[in-house]
Amino acid sequence: MTRRISLCLFVVCALLAGCNRSAQEPPPNVLATQVAATLTAAPTLPASITPPPRPTGVPSATLAAMPTGTPTETPTPGGSPSPTAPPLAPDDPRTGINLSVPEYQDDFTVAYKWVGPDDPGSATNRMESGHLEATDHKADGYIWWSTTDPQAEDVYAEVSALIGACSGKDAAGFSVRVNGANFDQAYTLEFSCDGSMRLRRFISNTAPETLIEWTASPEIVKGPNATNRMGLLAKGSKLYVFANGKPVGQAEDVAYSSGTFGLFASAANSSAVSVTFDDFAAWYP
């Protein structure tokens, strides 16, 4: 399974991540302008990017999972406490994943690990003070996301999303299996200001396919100024949605088998909406 991409592919991602991921394809001149601006503004990347080490010493037979939250710690004689996790329900699709020990983490303190458009006329995605702040400046149906370097096939990933001033279907967005020549293909999860969720498949040069229509969930904290832990499990053709550690929906689709991740804000009912992302984590089942 490919879980990381090389630095050279990350450079390509950095150069192209400004392309429009839209519900409708933008006019050619808009797309060309955005790509040109991204190429001009692309930063010089560090000589190497070292992914965090994978945890070791956790026997596979004892792996368990837990809802999102503060892990329970069990004292280890003669050493530091090690996190343990109570088991989930037998039918939880994350059973067998030790959610107390992510295999990849990102606290958004390393510059340029997430790269996306920075255009006040459309969308801005900026890393500030250990967070990634995504702002959609137009309620025009277009989605612009930031991408990062790790890739995965089967993966469970979570990120915390704080949506600011908002209403209705203004939303925080999280993508998995981002792929394609312009990084414009993905499965995208949205949590809206009014407490609903939606799952879609984005396709190059055409309208996205809706896998789960907007569905209200009591597990999603309504905005404005609400924080939710967004979770997506992509396991083979099955896609499972989690809100604050609880399963809230599932779908099946065979279009995409691997890719990286994306984060975005989506304005629908407001003239602009901002989302602050933090504490990204991923596990490889």
Low-confidence stretches: 1-82
CATH C-level class is Mainly Beta
Helix percentage:
under 10%
CA(first)-CA(last) distance: 11 Å
- The gyration radius over C-alpha positions equals 18 Å
Output the structural class: mainly beta
User: What kind of assembly state do the chains in view correspond to?
Assistant: single chain
Question: At the fourth CATH level, what is the homologous superfamily?
Answer: Exo-inulinase, domain 1
Number of helices: 2
Q: What is the overall shape? A: globular
Number of domains: 1
What fraction strand? 35-45%
Order of helices and strands: HEHEEEEEEEEEEEEEEEEEEE
Largest sheet: 9 strands, antiparallel
If you average the pLDDT, what whole number results? 78
CATH architecture: Sandwich
CATH topology: Jelly Rolls
